[in-house]
């Protein structure tokens, strides 16, 4: 279930209440007249089954609620209510399969900003991965994948491509390009510094590294792994489950590949730098392609589920209206 807090102008409050009350996926409707002060208006509270939330939010936007009021959406971890159970049963499909586009767009859109935290995280992750490459330590590679924040802009780019939002596409591409350039530049500098103090040397890069040499030797499996990870990552975003996202971050060699490019450039090993750069591009492309295709399939499948559900409700209403009603019984005097 999702909890909605809706601030609506007084002249449209009744229309919003009627809309919410008529939707079988909505329950626990509460109206507090004049409770909202900034912006002014009525406060309407309700719970909506996740699988019916996208249609409700779309209808509220069509009423212009988001223009002079506001809509806040919160997740509800547990609801003990027969009315909530009926709302979930009345909504189409399952909540874990539903895509709430406003939620996904807002969640991923926040990941496109070139914040200091984002740049610092991707830089630290790349430096850690660079050390892991030289030491041939997979545990450091895994740690770098977990720290790396690059999946946020990748997910935002996939969503923006499906919805064709040009500003988000530009911001996502900029966050990825600038983030990796800054991180790789910092890793080159850190490699020179660590080399100067004698903690690492060029021979460590040229030595056999059986545990991490896959990072700079891309093959067909590189695309397969990146594609599957992109599907899993997008499903984790649309279903609001973070556990799968962690698995994606430790499965894709984006940050480690960028780190290997930087280390190879610092030690002037062009063949390894080229192979790592190709690995990075393959994984980035695979994740975006997988994310776009996953969203398109989800949108197509969910639209079919919704249409089927609406058709069933329409038939039920028609049969209920056509069935003869029992004659009223005479009351006692």
TrEMBL record:
Region annotation (Disordered) ranges: 313-333
Top-level taxon in the UniProt lineage: Bacteria
Signal peptide positions (record): none
Composition bias type Low complexity, residue spans: 318-333
Keyword Transmembrane helix tagged: yes
Keywords from the named record: Membrane, Transmembrane, Transmembrane helix
Stretches that traverse the bilayer: 116-135, 141-162, 174-200, 220-238, 245-268, 280-302
Protein name per its UniProtKB record: DUF389 domain-containing protein
